[in-house]
Design a protein that fits this description.
Structural class: alpha+beta
Length: 416
C-alpha cells in the first residue's frame, strides 16, 4: 500500500453516542482524533431515542443497571464503574445538559429534547478539536503485524492511527446510520459474530384478531412457549398492533424471540391479560359476580378490569355474546373464557425487522474483547464501543448508558 495521506492518533468509526463519547475521551487525553460518520451529520439515531426525548440513563447503581443485561452483566461492569449513571449525569451537566429522573427511574434531559443533548456533545467535540469526516464510509481497518494502524475509506484513501475505535452500531434503523458495516469491518479484521437479530422490536402474530385490538394497552404478564412449561414471566404494558403486539414488555422479550425465530418457524406466547389474574383467579371472580351481579352483562363486568374492546374480543374468542347477562351464560363457556383471560395464546411468526428495531442483539463476540479496556484480543490497538458488541439491554435507558460508558472506556484506552 501507498503511504497514508492523513495521520492521527485515534480514529473512531461511527458518530453515534458511543463514537462521540469515545472521540471526546481520546481528545481530552490530548490525542488527535478523527471521526468517520457515513451520514452527513453525526448523532441521527440519538435524536430518535426515547421518542425524541432521549432516555439517557437510569437512576440506578452500576450493579442494578448491569443486572438487566443478564449474563453479560460481568462484561459491562468495568465500563459502568468508569462512567456510572450518576457520573454520566454529572458529566452531562458539565457540558451543559441538566437531567431529571421520572417516577420509574428513567433519566431524561431536563428539556426532554434529544437535540439539546446532541448539540452539547457536538459543542464539546468542537472544543476539544476533533476532526470529522461526514458522508464518508470506512472500507477497511488496516492491520499490520497484528496491530490496527489505521483505516482505508471506500474511495481508497488511507488514514493512519495508533489506535482505532469501532463504534459503528449494529443493523437496526439503517436510515439513521446503523447499516451493519461495523460487523463486516470486525469480521474482516479477524473477529467472529454472534448472529445479529433485531431486538426492542414489535412482534407479528399468526392470529388476525389482534387487528381488532390495535391501540389497546393492558398491563399483563407474558410467557414464551405453548407446549410444555412456559418460560419465566415478564410483567409490563403490552400494546396490541394491527399485525401483532408491542409495548415495553414485548420489546424486552423481542430479542430472545428473534433468536428463536432464527431456528423455528413460530414461537408461542401466553398472555395473562391482567397481571396477577390467573385462570383460577378469574373463575373465583366470576363465581363472586354470579352471587352479586348476575344480571349485568359479561361485557360490563369485564369492563371493571379490561378495556371494553378487549373484553369484546376475548368474549368472541370464547364464543360468548358479551352483551348477554352473566346469568344466561353457561358454566362451560365461562371456564373457557377464564382460560383465555388467564392465558391467551398467540403465535409469533415474525418481527417488524431491523428497520423498526431499536437495538441489534448479537455482534462481536465478547470472548474476543478485553472487558477491562474494550481492546480486541485478536488485533492490538483495535477497540470496540456500543452496539457493535454482542450486548443488548432492555428498553428504558439501558442501551444508551452502555453506549456512553463503553465509549468513554474505549476512548480512554485507545488514547493509551
Amino acid at each position: 500500500m501507498s503511504e497514508p495521506e492523513f495521520d492521527f492518533d485515534v480514529i473512531v468509526i461511527g458518530g453515534g453516542p458511543a463514537g462521540l463519547t469515545a472521540a471526546i475521551a481520546a481528545a481530552e487525553a490530548g490525542r488527535r482524533v478523527l471521526v468517520f460518520e457515513r451520514l452527513q451529520r453525526p448523532g441521527r439515531k440519538l435524536l430518535a431515542t426515547g421518542g425524541g426525548r432521549c432516555n439517557l440513563t437510569r437512576d440506578e447503581t452500576p450493579k442494578q443497571l448491569a443486572a438487566e443485561f443478564g449474563r453479560r452483566r460481568h462484561f459491562i461492569m468495568p465500563a459502568l464503574w468508569g462512567l456510572s449513571p450518576e457520573m454520566l449525569r454529572y458529566w452531562l451537566a458539565e457540558i451543559g445538559i441538566e437531567t431529571e429522573a421520572d417516577e420509574q427511574g428513567r433519566v431524561y434531559p431536563a428539556s426532554h429534547k434529544a437535540v439539546n443533548v446532541l448539540t452539547a456533545l457536538m459543542d464539546r467535540c468542537k472544543a476539544v478539536g476533533m476532526v470529522f469526516r461526514c458522508g464518508a464510509s470506512v472500507g477497511e481497518i488496516r492491520v499490520d503485524e497484528g496491530r490496527a494502524v489505521g483505516v482505508v475509506d471506500v474511495r481508497g484513501r488511507e488514514f493512519s492511527a495508533k489506535a482505532v475505535v469501532l463504534a459503528a452500531g449494529g443493523m437496526c434503523m439503517p436510515k439513521l446510520g446503523s447499516d451493519g458495516s461495523g460487523f463486516m469491518l470486525a469480521e474482516a479484521a479477524g473477529h467472529s459474530l454472534s448472529e445479529p437479530v433485531p431486538a426492542l422490536v414489535s412482534l407479528e402474530t399468526r392470529e388476525k384478531f389482534v387487528a381488532d385490538l390495535a391501540g389497546v394497552v393492558t398491563n399483563c404478564r407474558v410467557r414464551l412457549g405453548l407446549k410444555g412449561p412456559a418460560g419465566a414471566p415478564r410483567e409490563g404494558e403490552l400494546l396490541f398492533t394491527h399485525r401483532g403486539v408491542s409495548g415495553p414488555v414485548i420489546l424486552d422479550l423481542s430479542g430472545e424471540v428473534s433468536q428463536m425465530l432464527d431456528e423455528l418457524d413460530e414461537v408461542g406466547m401466553r398472555i395473562e391479560l391482567v397481571a396477577g389474574m390467573t385462570a383460577e383467579a378469574w373463575r373465583e371472580q366470576f363465581a363472586a359476580w354470579r352471587e352479586a351481579a348476575s344480571a349485568k352483562s359479561v361485557r360490563k363486568l369485564l369492563g371493571e378490569h379490561l378495556v371494553l374492546r378487549l373484553a369484546d374480543v376475548v368474549c368472541g374468542l370464547a364464543e360468548i355474546d358479551s352483551t348477554r347477562p352473566l346469568a344466561e351464560v353457561g358454566a362451560k363457556a365461562i371456564r373457557r373464557l377464564c382460560e383465555i383471560l388467564g392465558s391467551m395464546e398467540l403465535t409469533i411468526v415474525d418481527t417488524a425487522g431491523f428497520d423498526a428495531a431499536m437495538v441489534t442483539r448479537g455482534g462481536v463476540r465478547l470472548g474476543e474483547v478485553n472487558e477491562e479496556t474494550l481492546e480486541s484480543r485478536i488485533v492490538n490497538g483495535l477497540f470496540f464501543a456500543g452496539e457493535v458488541l454482542d450486548i443488548a439491554g432492555p428498553c428504558g435507558g439501558y442501551n444508551l448508558t452502555w453506549a456512553f460508558a463503553s465509549g468513554k472506556l474505549a476512548g480512554e484506552s485507545a488514547a493509551g
